[in-house]
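Take a careful look at the protein record below. Let me know whether the structure tokens fit the sequence:
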Amino acid sequence: MTDLPGSPATVVARFDDYPWACFIDGIEVKVLRANLIQNSYTLLSRFAPGIRLPRHKHFGDVHAYTISGRWHYLEYDWWATPGGYVYEPAGAIHTLDVPEDATEPALILFVVNNGMALINDEGEIWMLEDAAAMVERYAQVLEANGQPVPTLV
């Protein structure tokens, strides 16, 4: 079957076609898709046991699907485990944590809309992250390590 006239083409992204970029020790990402106009991106994240991300506030909704491992937000009493889907509404503030006693990294597929602000202990914003910033950081890390930068969906 072919695409319908006037309909944009549908694309398949294979995880193996995208290299891991190590942002810091224990935090690796593969940016699969980015729409800079809509400020939206999709990434596969791999967080090692013991990783705790900075507290952050989302400006749009976020969808997270856990492929392997376990993780949670310090502010809530639930745990995301393989097969679990987490919905985060715009305005959500939380701190992602992978427990030190986890037996494997947490592998999570995220769809992030409208970016986020990283917040320090005083409640002040110290970094903004949107689709453009994520794409730029991914490319910079790959290039610095001599890896090819893939074409994103």
